[in-house]
User: Fold this.
Amino acid sequence: MGVLNRVWRAIKPPPAVYAGGAARKKLSRKQRKLLTITAGVIGLAGAGWGAYAFLANAQQRADKEYLAAVKLMGPGKYQEAVVHFTRALEISPNLANAYLERGVSYAYLNESDQAITDLGQAIALNPNLAHAFSARGSIYRQRGDFQHAMQDFSDSLKIEPSLDAYYERGQTYEALLEHQKAIEDYDRALAVMRDSPNVYRSRALAKRNLGDDAGYESDRDMARILERRR
Assistant:
């Protein structure tokens, strides 16, 4: 505002100007022009600040709704979480994580079409959301759409190796009766996290399907040991 102050001092009229009436004629044409420009600049500056403050406040409100929704997911209040994620997206439509988590919430509510739509939107906004790919892949696998499931799990793993994506892709291979490929993915999953009883149990079944009875018993027993530790 320092520049505006200097302009104002340059065009500041004598005190009589504020009294109105004929005294206003004391303003020169140049002063009147500068006064009009200054008023316009001040108005634009005020409008710009108001817009900035509104946008900053909007982002804070969107973040508040998003965090409230995430907290509701913990205790399994997915329907309420959807409401808050929706509010966040109404305020800030480009929140990729809000689409991701709302998609996951829809999946838990068995509303798979809405879940796939939201997860796809999350991926469109941020193609590096590995969890969005794996979450959508899980829905496809449950639907029996193994081709799309396999693609999503593979895309997720290109971004970030994870226990869930390896395990889910292993489950997909198993459903396709490709037991050896399933075992290889279970091995990779265990390299990420060694103490997952579900992975050991699934690998045990895959080994039994290949006739490896000793491997089946070893993995089955390990799954039981890990479950007792929990």
Summary: The first helix runs from residue 2 to 11. The domain at 145-230 is CATH 1.25.40.10 (Serine Threonine Protein Phosphatase 5, Tetratricopeptide repeat). The radius of gyration is 31 Å. The chain has two domains: 53-127, 145-230.
